[in-house]
Amino acid sequence: MIQTKVFKVVVVWGCMLLAMPSMSVHANAAGGQAIKPLTVLAMMKAESDFLAKWQAQKSKVVARARPKPSLISIYGVVPQLRATVLLNGREVVFEQGRRHPLHPQTNSVRLRNIDPPCVSFFHGAKLETVCMSRVGS
């Protein structure tokens, strides 16, 4: 007895999402074919299993190295200096004398000191110090 599978392709939002067996076809040696369809429950289970695997593959995020923080600017007049730091792709604005940044409002970053040409801050539990690059470097 030869067994072959017929595949059903499901298209959602114009994209092909999955191909799954929709029925089994059995051919006997005499040449006659008997079609044994899958039950709706079996098709739903196969579809949900395939979709779960597909979603798991799509949701895997490749761990990328985060860019190091960089100092964009230090400006103002002593004792009210401000510093803008690029941290994880977002600008964080610190003001001397304030523990938390002015923008964005977050508790994960705390200012330690603005001492031109450098700024020191805690990012989580880690102390970070970033300095202005030298002209011509």
Strand content: over 45%
The major β-sheet equals:
3 strands, antiparallel
- Judged by helices, strands and strand pairing, the structural class is mainly beta
Radius of gyration: 30 Å
**Within the largest sheet, what's the order of strands?**
1-2-3
Query: Secondary-structure element order, as H and E?
Result: EEEHEEEEEE
- Summed over residues and divided by their number, the pLDDT gives a mean of 77
List low-pLDDT spans: 11-26
**Number of helices, counting only DSSP H or I runs of 4 residues or more:** 1
Gap from first CA to last CA: 76 Å
Explain what the structure shows.
The structure is a single chain. The protein has a three-stranded antiparallel beta sheet, covered by helices on one side. Strands 4-5-6 form a three-stranded antiparallel beta sheet, with no helix packed on it. The model is unreliable at 11-26 (pLDDT under 50). Helices cover 15% and strands 51% of the residues. The protein has one helix at residues 40-59; strands at residues 2-12, 15-27, 33-37, 70-77, 80-87, 90-95, 109-115, 118-123, 126-131. The radius of gyration is 30 Å and the shape is rod-shaped. It has 137 residues and is mainly beta.
